[in-house]
Amino acid sequence: MPARVPALGAPGRTRRMWFVCDVLGIACAASTWVLVLGAAGVLLRAQLLPARDAAYGLAHGALFHLLAFLALAAHARAMLSDPGSVPLGTAPGGPRCPLCGCTQPPRAHHCMVCRRCIRKMDHHCPWVNNCVGEDNRKYFLLFTLYTALGSLHLLLLLGVPALRGYARGEWDSHSTLTPRASLIFLLLVALKGFLFASAMFATQLHAICTDRTRIEQLQRERAGPGSGSKWMNLKAVLGHRLSLAWISPFASPRPQRARGALRVV
């Protein structure tokens, strides 16, 4: 069940830390950090530090570690941000959730893992140990984006020299030159990460542009009356003004709230 920790803020406002106490989700989220940090360590130790060209090692090391840092920052924000939970309690009018007892606004769904109704719930992702909903969708999108870019960088950095060596016959049956096992493992991790993250990024981007969550797509539900153009839907998630804040996991878009916010009694 989500643990909510009060944080300091302006008077009259409660900012809460959100954390889902799910063993499987915690294990998956921790494994994500282990893979990213492990890949950074193996790349640095086995590929970049031994490089004869210092500029080559510095440039590629800085690029990959920047992408890894942004990916993990977005992952942390997606994991520790309230995805858009509906306040517990009942209000006059509107359907009531039989599981958590809240008055369920339109387009909200109950998550069996978080044990709460989540506004515009897309899905519960064990890799971030949280639901992907109205208030943390930007962070999940950036997590998949930077993970895909970092994995692609690894694929190009390791795969291109490997293909060149194979084309030159350096890996034939008579050659004593063999690729390092750690680099092969890193290449496979990068390939899996790129395929998974790029597919998730494309799926999320399509869902945001069409203003339809994955649950709504599976249930063939229509989006609510607030859906607009693709550009307006993007701005609703990433921010109302086009800026570098769109690609920053540290910039929080203005919180969205359903029309006619329910008053908890």
Number of distinct helices:
6
User: Which sheet architecture does the biggest sheet show?
Assistant: 2 strands, antiparallel
So what's the overall shape?
A: elongated
For the biggest β-sheet, the strand order reads 1-2
Structural class: mainly alpha
The share of residues in extended strands comes to 5-15%
Could you tell me how far the N terminus lies from the C terminus, measured between alpha carbons in angstroms? 22 Å
**Radius of gyration, CA atoms, in whole angstroms:** 22 Å
The overall pLDDT average reads: 82
Organism: Odobenus rosmarus divergens (Pacific walrus)
Catalytic activity: L-cysteinyl-[protein] + hexadecanoyl-CoA = S-hexadecanoyl-L-cysteinyl-[protein] + CoA
Membrane topology: Multi-pass membrane protein
InterPro entries: Palmitoyltrfase_DHHC, PFA4/ZDH16/20/ERF2-like
What is the structure about, briefly put?
With 265 residues, this protein is mostly helical. The chain contains 6 helices and 6 strands. The chain has a two-stranded antiparallel sheet with strand order 1-2.
Structure notes:
The two termini are 22 Å apart. Helix 1 runs antiparallel to helix 2, helix 1 packs across helix 4 and helix 2 runs antiparallel to helix 3. The protein is mainly α. It has one domain. It is built from six helices and six strands, in the order E-E-H-H-E-E-E-E-H-H-H-H. A two-stranded antiparallel sheet has the order 1-2.
